Amino acid sequence: MGHLLEQGEKMVLNNEEEAWLRLETLISQEPQFQPLLQLPSLARDENEVTSGMRDETVQVLRCLKVCFDLPAEVLLLATLSMDRFLTKMRALRRHLAVIGVAALHLAAESLRPSSGCPELSRLAIVSQCGCTAADLARMSGLMQLKLGSTIAATALDFLNAFRSILGLTGPDSSGLEVLAADSACSNFRPCELALVLLFLYIDGCPEKVRDSLAKPIGEIYDVCKINENSFWYCYEVVSASLKQYEERPKSPHNKQRLVWRLSQRTFRTLRPTSRFDQELETILEENLKQLPD
């Protein structure tokens, strides 16, 4: 029995060591993938991309992620790739939708090459980005040329490493999806976003759990070499963003960013009731039976 316990402890230790090594690799990769968006809140001309337009594009990508049953890692990698591309290139407003959908396709192709990658033709139709599959293919090629083919380190990668080190099952990726759609969070380091989300999660845990995690979280903080002022500013912005999301009006239509317009032919196909006869035979009164009093 003691031998089995020793084996179990060794396995846990190996898993923890592997998580620390993974974290160090992510930290070394992080600077080369860090975006530096400088989008205005108000457009100075009709062609300029604003931060609000960027956020609306990410909301569309969230809809597509659900529509095509893609994992959160695809959405977050796509958002990061789009932000990096907008950092390097001055995009026009009419190109933004194509850039976002192309980024989603590249992310799905990189992370799920064998299955689950939507076809460009389907993406072009469902996303309503106003382009063809050939346009998406050209934009994907341009993005690969400017960004390279390396898979970037996202905040979800850091969060997964943190959870492995601490032995936690939460928080999940839903908070990162919310933050991805807020341009105010786009220039923070991925490790900062993940660590802030972890802090907020642990704040809701019992005091005994918080005390037991204090030391390893401090070690994570030191290894990531996070500036204290930057971290607490990130904490304020992330908290405000999540609070605003939670306090949004509870309407089922608020999350909808895509409106699918159907032709009359498609509408009739989807409405089986259109095949019913609209004219009914007249019911003669003498054929009705008298109900008992």
Describe, in plain words, how this protein is organized in 3D.
This protein is mostly helical. Helices cover 61% and strands 0% of the residues. It is built from twelve helices and no strands. It has helices at residues 2-29, 51-67, 72-88, 96-111, 120-127, 133-147, 155-166, 174-180, 190-203, 207-224, 228-246, 264-270. Helix 9 (190-203) packs antiparallel against helix 10. It is globular and about 55 Å long. Mean pLDDT is 82; it is low at 1-12 and 266-278.
How is the topology of this model organized?
Elements: H1 2-29, H2 51-67, H3 72-88, H4 96-111, H5 120-127, H6 133-147, H7 155-166, H8 174-180, H9 190-203, H10 207-224, H11 228-246, H12 264-270
Arithmetic mean of pLDDT:
82
The count of β-strands is: 0
User: Percent of residues in helical segments?
Assistant: 55-70%
Structural class: mainly alpha
* Oligomeric state, counting identical vs distinct chains: single chain
Shape designation? globular
Largest sheet: none
Could you give the distance between the termini?
82 Å
Q: Which runs of at least 5 residues are low in confidence (pLDDT < 50)?
A: 1-12, 266-278
Tell me the strand percentage band.
under 5%
Radius of gyration: 25 Å
H/E element order: HHHHHHHHHHHH
Helices, by number, come to: 12
